[in-house]
TrEMBL record:
Protein name, entry field: D-glycero-beta-D-manno-heptose-7-phosphate kinase
Originating organism: candidate division WOR-3 bacterium
Positions of transmembrane segments: none
GO molecular function, one term: heptose-1-phosphate adenylyltransferase activity
CDD domains linked: RfaE_like
UniProt domain Carbohydrate kinase PfkB: residue ranges: 15-268
Keywords: Kinase, Transferase
UniProt xrefs under InterPro entries: Carboh/pur_kinase_PfkB_CS (IPR002173), PfkB_dom (IPR011611), RfaE_dom_I (IPR011913), Ribokinase-like (IPR029056)
Example of a GO cellular component annotation carried by this entry: cytosol
PROSITE patterns: PFKB_KINASES_1 (PS00583)
Amino acid sequence: MEKVLETIDRFKKLKAIVVGDLMLDVYSFGTVERISPEAPVPVVRVDYDEYRVGGAANVANNLRVLGAEVKVAGLVGEDYEGKLLLDLMESQGIDTSMVKVVRGKKTIVKNRIVAKGQQLLRLDREDLNDKGGKIRKKILSDLLKYSQDVDFVIIEDYNKGFLDNFIYRTVITSSPVPVFIDPKFEHYSSMKNAFLVKPNFEEFKKATGLRKIRGNFGISVENFRKRLNLKNLVVTKGEDGMYITNDEGVYHIPSLHRNVFDVTGAGD
């Protein structure tokens, strides 16, 4: 426990940039009292809504809570949700100077309907059309400039249209600091030479073409790490914990089993 606290305390001295898909998370908490007469679905009486930073903004917020100094880079729409997301990030001490507002773009919103601790439904409002081409280049230029003054960069990819292979390659090859990646399958070819890549099991299967686990799964993880020439590869497997591989070896860290109502992010 002492080592854990020491590790957490180190974050207070760190500076980071988080680049990726920014989202607004909305939680609508309510009560189910009956089934709708219009269709066999529950009627939820919403008592209140909570607004939270999501996606790459959530990663930035977690680092901020640990005490790190954080800049976030990404896009929001010129809408109410975008302004709310910016306000939330700034209120939590996150530097939003590399967040650009794009006219005609809709801010990504994930609205979760929750009753008695159980998530019943999620409504996604997304705009996957590329409306930030020129702005993206400006963000990338700023990111490379500011990366000279931070300790690490995190790429948080939800495949929502902001990140592309060019950004991956440029950040990895040009940043003077370690680059950590929470990836999507579509961009694996551009992740070579990264400091750390952390896919979940499903993403790992897509990237490797693995359908069934035969023999030692750790060997498959290590082979993939060598293929991309990664310093570190971490594969999360939900209830089976995670596999970590680097030049020092392959390690399996089991998970602690708990009964939960909402597994959002639990596999990571």
